[in-house]
Amino acid sequence: MAVPAPTPPPRPSHPPESGSGLDVTPYERPSGVHPPLDFADYRSTALRAPHQPLVLLPHRLTEITGPLLGAERVTAADADLTAQHEGEPQGQRIIVSGRVLDTGGRPVPDTLIEIWQPNAGGRYRHVVDDHPAPLDPNFTGVGRCVTDSGGRYRFVTIKPGSYPWRNHPNAWRPAHIHFSLFGRAFAQRLVTQMFFPGDPLFFQDPIFNSVPEAARDRLISRFDLGLTVPEWALGYAWDIVLRGRGATFFERQDGHR
Amino acid sequence: MIAKLTPSQTVGPFLAIGLPWPDGPFVVPEGTAGAITLTGRVFDGAGDPVTDALVETWQADPDGRFAHPDDPRGAAGHGFRGFGRCPTGPDGSYRIVTLKPGPLPGPDGETEAPHLDVSVFARGLLDRVVTRVYFPDEGQANEADPVLASIDPARAATLIAAADPDAPGLLRFDIHLQGDQETVFFDV
Q1: pLDDT tens-place values along chain A, 257 residues long
Q2: Strands (DSSP E) found in B60-161
Q3: N vs C: which end of chain B shows fewer Cβ within 10 Å?
Q4: What residues contact residue A10 under an 8 Å CB cut-off, 6+ apart?
Q5: Chain B: closest CA distance from residue A218 (Å)
């Protein structure tokens, strides 16, 4: 996606209101972007997605603030998933890099990103993963980093493999990396998955396809020769966009998902 | 909108390799003066424990302040993390050690009763679900709370933690994703 030059943070768009005079500018309430909780094609939703309608929670102090977790939780080594063991992991070495922005195009600096993924054979280092692909003694599949002052992040890892699951006959997940982000407010918290361009498995994946069609391509990284390190690693670019604050950036204002 | 919002996806069944932290459940160290323990179990629509969920909490400090620059009163100058994170165990239980938050002023002069915001992530949840925990010893404040007031009274009780008369400082808060006792979840 085209990234505009950063703009200054918005000033509160309305004067303090009566009462306490606290200014609590809300975050946007997007619709048509996030998946519905109730999505029958993904079978695990059946017993877990709430049945009652969600209750609108206007943003007050608890929602416009959030944990500011950063540098104290990571070391530089945490961003290189290929260097966490004595040897190098098997697989295609890749670089995944981009910016964390809000919907106003403003970078989100100093924010913690956590990732996890399977190895090149599509196996997670987790006791519940019984996919009969080998574990890689040199790959844990967990990384962390903190965005810089421009909201940029960069991981070195290996390209994750696809793996079968039992959601439907002959079901396979497209290759993906799990991402967890905090932003700077409880309202901005996001857990998502990054996919790779041209994956032939998209059409049969209910998790990817749970996202409204117009927004699905936002989950797919872009091959980037500029990020590629010659004779060493392929580069994939992926910007992650969190909710913006203030009415200017509302997609719709009706509060429905 | 200048940049396009990134959609949510489920944490899947393997979040336990990436998200738990050794100190995650301890918003304050165990044994801190005045610490409370919030514990409970997460259940699915069949009444079975959800053993692969992650519960996160966010809250104000005991004075009702946040160590955050967007608190319009200014950031509280202390190290209270305010954030807890605990994966559920084989019985679906989580446990957070923290301090009881204070009441909060609202933009229209109202007062919010002491509460924690809670996110639940799990396989089968394509987005987090969000709820709130209120306190059983805050009857009057809960009566005046604008969020509780917006909820069907028959369901609002799902947001009040239960005290344990045999264990001072222990609060129980079960989370039912579905069913007769389905917890109230919010559109944040």
Answers
A1: 444 444 444 444 443 344 556 888 999 998 999 999 999 999 999 999 999 999 999 999 999 999 999 888 999 899 999 999 999 999 999 999 999 999 999 999 999 999 999 999 999 999 999 999 999 999 999 999 999 999 999 999 999 999 999 999 999 999 999 999 999 999 999 999 999 999 999 999 999 999 999 999 999 999 999 999 999 999 999 999 999 997 544 444 444 43
A2: 83-87, 93-99, 104-105, 111-112, 115-122, 129-134
A3: N
A4: A25, A104, A245, A246, A248
A5: 6
Contact B8 A190 (CB under 8 A): yes
Interface predicted TM-score (ipTM) of this complex, two decimals: 0.97
Active-site pick, A173, A184, A243, A245: A173
Give exposure, A2-36, as e/b (b: 16+ Cβ within 10 Å).
eeeeeeeeeeeeeeeeeebebbbbbbbbbeebbbe
In B57-116, the residues whose Cβ lies within 8 Å of chain A are: 58-60, 66-68, 70-73, 81-83, 104-110, 112, 115
What domains can you pick out in chain B, each with its CATH number? 15-176 (2.60.130.10)
**Is A208 in a helix, a strand, or coil?**
helix
Active site residue A124: yes
Nearest to B115, CA basis, from A61, A19, A189: A61
What residues in B contact A19, CB-CB < 8 Å? 106-110
CA distance B70 to chain A (A): 6
Residue numbers of B between 131 and 150 with CB closer than 8 Å to A: 132, 146-147, 150
Domain ranges for chain A, please list them: 67-242
Closest to A165 measured CA to CA, from A121, A215, A205, A115: A205
Residues of chain B contacting residue A28, judged by C-beta atoms under 8 Å apart: 1, 5
Give the end-to-end CA distance of chain A in Å, rounded to a whole number.
23
Cα A190 to Cα A219: distance, rounded to the nearest angstrom: 13
List CB contacts (< 8 A) between A123 and chain B. Answer: none
Count of C-beta atoms within a 10 Å radius of residue B106 = 20
Match domain A67-242 to its CATH number in 2.60.130.10, 2.60.40.10, 2.40.160.40, 3.30.470.20. Answer: 2.60.130.10
